[in-house]
Amino acid sequence: MQSEIFYSILPLRTAFMDSFMHLLTESYLILIPLLILYFAYKKDKSVIPLIVAILLTVSVVTIIKTVVAEPRPCDVLLELYPDGCTDTGYSFPSRHTAIVFSVLPFFVGNVFYFIVYGLYALFVALTRVYFGLHYPTDIIAGMIFGYLIGYFCIKHKEKIDSIFNIY
Prior knowledge:
The chain is about 70% helix and about 0% strand. By secondary structure, it is mostly helical.
């Protein structure tokens, strides 16, 4: 059932869309460090919990990916992706999605930033399906894992700060 989505996406793919989506899917590699620097510059006490949330998300999702070991759609649907995947590793859950969603709880206090960043995170998640790297359930799981880990870190920011003794 999930594979039907890839058949409907394929006609939408163009060189321009592929380039745009590639830029979007990798943009978090620039945006998240900039957010960390911004939080640090503002002396926001959430900067250490934010870094912990991202590192914890990467660790937890990597362990889950290794245990579940679900092949990527582009490695399974070879009639749609005859060249296979451009990324290595497993599909479930989406690490890109989990990382960008782990940052979202840090914007809960500001509705505008929460909505803008939430839409950005959603678009990053959708690029993973667009490229055939993840099933929809992979990005949904990434959203949940990332958000919950970020939420946990923001709720325990005083404890995290005391562990690192920064402030």
